[in-house]
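Database export, one record per block. Field names are fixed; values are copied verbatim from the stored entry.
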Amino acid sequence: MINTSEFLWYIPNDVKAGHRGDAVVENHNSLATLTNQAKALEQHGWKGALIGTGWGRPDTFTVAAALAAQTTTFEPLIAIRPGYWQPAHFASAAATLDQLSDGRVRINIVSGKDNLAAYGDSEGDQEHRYSRTREFMRLVRRLWTEENVTFAGQHFRVTGSTAAPRLQSRGDRRHPKLYFGGASEPAERVAATEADVQLFWGEPLDGVRTRIERLKELSRELDRDLAPLEFGLRITTLVRETTAQAWADAEAKVAEMARTSGSGWQDHREAVAVGQRRLLDLHKRGDVLDDNLYTAPGKFGGGGAGTTWLVGSAEDVARSLRKYQNLGVSHFILSDTPYLSEIKRQGDLLLPLLRD
């Protein structure tokens, strides 16, 4: 299982410098700066990186295309939102970039709250939102794998649609993988039927085990007609040469978060989704869960993958990640700040242990 796992990083893609404690430097989101990160990922053993999205941030697809053009093996995991894109338009754009990059595109479908009115979108309640996401994913996959598609759903319609260019099959890969996150009941039903990879935040092992079992059962109940659902973990990993140094640095970071009321860390807190709420509540069970899952950041800002951290030496963190692998997790999206230096540190210290 270890040798089949994939390890990606995270590129925040934000107009504001200092994201989650990142180094505040001039031109922090310039092509040169982001290209340096993408090339460092190639050089230090990473498969690629998730690129963040949201209204008020630079357009994720444009950033991904620019980085793909500057690199040779870097695989962008492009976060996109139904409603911001129409399915046929997106299917063609993604197929084009996939062809130009020799099959390096991955897609993360995001259904969480956003400033929809700012770009002319609207949606109803949670059930409506995930119903639309389900249709979007099903139609995009059909447009990638079929020709002359006609579809009339509740949210989207196409007639005689053939997306161009046509995607090339690459071994077992017929199209870019669709990653998806969400912990509510409607979200899990979408994952069980439409996603290729379900992403979890950094929950304790018992929580991830329960969710994997539930999603597998849902897949059977809902007659999933795709390949078996795969599972991924998106989490902060704070790695140092020694266990003691890692915990000293982690506690210092949290102390700074407390001093600044989590400034720069709160990008998932305005509209708290089910999965995020669970993460923020974990510290009530203790500041450290399992062996080294640090929940204290959630008291002072946290936010998404920054809410819980795996802390320790490379050996400590590798041991914990292997436990998630043993549960069936095979896609890992890790990060820590400063992003560039941690790409190198963790690529050199942590990844070799996970591939041993």
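Remark 1: DSSP finds eleven helices and 13 strands in the chain.
Remark 2: The longest strand covers residues 230-240.
End of record.
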